[in-house]
Amino acid sequence: MKLYSLNLLWLLTFVPFWGSAQVDTVPNLMEGVDTLYIEVNAQQQKFIKHKVQKGQTLYRISKFFSLELEDVYYYNNHLKDVPLSVDEELRLPFTEKALIRKWNETLVQKDFVPVYYVVKPKETLYTISRSYFMMSPALMQQNNEKPTTDLSKGEKLLVGWLDRQGVNDSIAVKTPFNNAIYKANSNLRTKYQVIAKTKKLQAENGIALWKNKQKPSEIVNFFVLHRKAPINSVLEITNPMTGRTFYAKVTGRIPKSTYDRNIKVVVTPSLAKALGAIDPKFHVKINYFRN
Asked: Of 152, 174, 196, at which residue does a domain stop?
């Protein structure tokens, strides 16, 4: 799998990961794992929940799931600032194509890990089987030995089995846009970190606004309007619903006569997309520095 080159600062920042990437003491990532869970977000993106075991590295984890390291960082933003720790849970992009959805007698039980989905309120067997996992409701009902199609909140549904040898690269989730925007944002992130050494942090929570009917640009514009942050300074913006954090340049003030006082920041459509926003207004956490 191709790994994108990283600049010197990136290497210095993540030397604990890369220093241990060459030696992985766990012979198989799924050794000792008897169950995996998968989640589906509002955009119907799927994520495997992987609990880190002793000796595992981000490099090994990304290789097993055939992901780029940038994708692991993108969906687990905290890893940019803190070391990987045992028993922490990672969200890893995943496709249902990597699952065996119909068991047959030629398969060996010990070579596969069962994967479960936890039912959310108002979800139906039809929605989960057809919309999420591209399988017939009858097959899902059969796999779970359910006498009826009735579901209850919190119920665990078997959705398939994952090969303990890992995800084949040919069917893995490919997210070049995610890689591109993460890399494009690195310069602003570096600028923010440099300023953080000499300035006092200002933090606020509130509503971000974007024009969700406007098509996002193919090139992400990391620009925002803010009420107080210095023009041309850099904001750290986090969407707590997705856990994504990006850095943006303040290009102007929010017009007082145009927007409600509850609006803390106005972002470009492409930045909103990078943050995982769906609605035109969404909650954010903002950090910045005053002069």
From this structure: 174
